[in-house]
Design brief:
With about 60 residues, the chain is an all-alpha fold. It is built from three helices and no strands. The longest helix has 16 residues, at about 35-50.
Length: about 60
Amino acid sequence: MSKISNRNQILGIRASTDFVKKFDELSTRLGFNRSETIRYALKRFLNETWNNSENFQKARKEMF
């Protein structure tokens, strides 16, 4: 088991050029950088699905 660190962690994903372009446009429209935009989106997703079994099941079905 690895030790959990309290420092910030880097999280990377693979994304298509089209996704990155749309994501950059969204970040610009919101007036925030990529990191702030993705943190907001992930935090909102976690808050909406973590303790809500209906939303969790919906997300599972929508994944693939």
